[in-house]
Amino acid sequence: MVTFFVFYFFSKIMTERLLIKALSGGKNTKIITLNGKKMTKMPSALGKLPGLKTLVLQNNLIPKVCPELCNLTQLTTLNLGNNLLEEVPEEMKYLTSLKNLHLSGNRICRFAPGACDGLQNLILLNLNNNHLTQLPQEVSRLKSLTYMSINYNQLASIPRELCFLENLVELQVNYNQLICIPKEIKFLKKLQKLLLARNNIGVLPEELCDLKKLRILDIAGNIIQIFPSGEITSRFVMNQLAENNPFLMDGIERYPQVRRMISQGKTCAICGQYFITVWLECVRFVPPPKDWKISKNLQLVPLQVLICSYKCFTQRDPNLFGIAQV
Length: 326
Description:
This is Leucine-rich repeat protein SHOC-2. One of its GO terms (cellular component) is cytoplasm. It holds the Pfam family LRR_8. The protein is an alpha/beta fold. The chain is about 15% helix and about 15% strand. It is built from 5 helices and 16 strands. It has helices at about 1-25, 230-240, 245-250, 255-265, 310-315, and strands at about 30-35, 55, 75-80, 85-90, 100, 110, 125, 145-150, 170, 195, 215-220, 265, 275, 280-285, 300-305, 320. It has a 9-stranded parallel β-sheet. A 3-stranded antiparallel β-sheet has the order 15-14-16. Strand 12 and strand 13 (about 275) form a beta hairpin. The protein is elongated. It starts with a helix and ends with a strand.
């Protein structure tokens, strides 16, 4: 017990000395790092450092941020990982220059109202190892967000609003309680890495095929049982091969059965994407080539075309007709 108090007292003295040194720099102080100092509150003196760029206070015992945090409008990196925060605080909205926010390892179960309002420049958000059961609709305001990690929480769903973050490149939602993926996932056009391991997902939406830039999809440890004829996977693989993805081109040589399946792929007449299972066989009437030896009275000839989905069928031109068995 005596050893603990000696350590605590020594740590407190060192923290105060570091703060005094930082404050003496005034506006010239750009970086403050106070890791593992057993701090139970955020120093209000930080508000006297308006030029601060990086603030690292991880591995402490801080339950909430100080109001003076609002003064740090030039802050670009804030690390409050492994503390005792219970919410993403409202003060965050004043950090208009913030680009990297680390809040992992806290007790966060909610976002304070308005917390996302001023985070228009935020690029990275780390909320791993918290107690979140849902994300607020306000996450859609994080327009610059590129990397988002929410591993080890209790999320049951991904809000559709998150799917409108057009700059998102990487989304990690491993070890949650997700049961499905919203169809709006297709709007994440820049997404390259989607990690959904160890959830309760039973079905993958066909809209995943619309993510042309997706390179890594991790769905290990789910309860997925529906892969219609392997269609979602095969479409993804074929479209990546068409773009000469080096990893898949190398891997496909090692699996002849997959190579045989993909060799049966076809191209949709509407969207131009590759697929395995034909959703509908159609016919399009086109003018015959001039070198054909046919009656001059025949102005149009039928041409077989294949369509990959109902969505594409509804976008067909007037000269394309579906073929039904009667």
